[in-house]
């Protein structure tokens, strides 16, 4: 049964999905082991009947944990924080918590949905680059201003938070859309600091089991030349 008791959480993910990427970072950060179930978005597996039973929105991620199936990356991150207090991803101070949520939502509600695959297909894939650049640049201009005030080493102060788990995947998307990151020095600096962390590195798209071999090789060559 889909809802049978599982000792190990199961993450329904696609290697390039930024929403699933957020959850992978959080699971790693909180040292929660999980099984990986790949859902190929390019092949339309997310809208197959068996996946719609898991996530009626036809999206990833979905996480089966504590005998409960949940979707939506931000609510998953909040649940992990509420149920597993070690390695926190939200600060104790209510105003700082609000700031972390603000940064997270700028990305998760204000940027990523506007440039995701479903919107690109509806808008016309021939306009993919132009549309994606518009959506990300529009959001990054605002985010850079917010982070100028909130950031320490990371998005909010010097501790890794949920906001950072949203930032890294969005900068990964920005690279795919050929965004000029020199326009966003604060975002760029924080992202580089986060990419030094082993929990973040292990969540990278090229490290996932459903990443095609040629993209893994390409990522390895880039790392080798840095």
Mind explaining what this structure looks like?
The chain has 226 residues and is α+β, with helices and mostly antiparallel strands. Helix content is 51%, strand content 7%. It is built from ten helices and four strands, in the order E-H-E-H-E-E-H-H-H-H-H-H-H-H. It has helices spanning 18-29, 49-54, 73-83, 94-108, 117-123, 128-150, 162-176, 185-194, 198-201, 213-225, and strands spanning 10-13, 35-38, 62-65, 68-71. The chain has a four-stranded mixed beta sheet, with helices on one face. Helix 1 links the parallel strand 1 (10-13) and strand 2. Helix 4 runs antiparallel to helix 6 and helix 4 (94-108) runs parallel beside helix 7 (162-176). It is globular and about 45 Å long. Mean pLDDT is 88; it is low at 1-5.
Short description:
The chain is an alpha+beta fold.
Number of E strands = 4
Poorly predicted spans:
1-5
Strand order of the largest sheet: 2-1-3-4
Describe the main β-sheet briefly: 4 strands, mixed
Q: Helix count, per DSSP?
A: 10
End-to-end gap: 47 Å
Secondary-structure-derived class: alpha+beta
Reconstruct the topology from this structure.
Elements: E1 10-13, H1 18-29, E2 35-38, H2 49-54, E3 62-65, E4 68-71, H3 73-83, H4 94-108, H5 117-123, H6 128-150, H7 162-176, H8 185-194, H9 198-201, H10 213-225
